[in-house]
Write a structure and sequence with these properties.
This protein is an alpha+beta fold and 160 residues long. The protein is built from five helices and four strands; from the N terminus they run H-H-H-E-H-E-E-H-E.
Amino acid sequence: MKRVEMDKLDRRILEVLQQDGRISNQLLAEQVGLSPAACWRRVRALEESGVITGYTAQLDPEAMGQGLCVLVNLSLQRHTIDSTAEIERKVSSYPEVLQCFAVTGNADFVLRVVVADMNSYDRFLNEKIFTLQGIAQVNSNFALREIKNTQVLPVQNEPG
């Protein structure tokens, strides 16, 4: 994706929206120093250009009964386009997998998985991960506590 050109006002809009995605256009316009119509046009342009990809509610995993967070390293037996694409497709379909990264280093993929408890994780491994074709090794790292978890990107005033 091509980098989108943004000025200070666009960047300020993004900073405010990342803190409160439910803010009214009127209040957003006041905070960034624009008229409501001009603010709305800028937000719409940021959405249409793909800078803003959506709006969501952030849920507390503990409150939702999904308090066990596991970082799973998957290593492949062989690296072929077809086998890798199939693993990516399957892993992406699992609701327990919140994030999946193709990585360099000791593993080929790193997954962030949330489940209710150890029994649920055991079931997830046996019913989903261990059934994937082409997996050579699975290493699980259990999160003891969360230090930082954000989706907020730094919004720089100057490119670079």
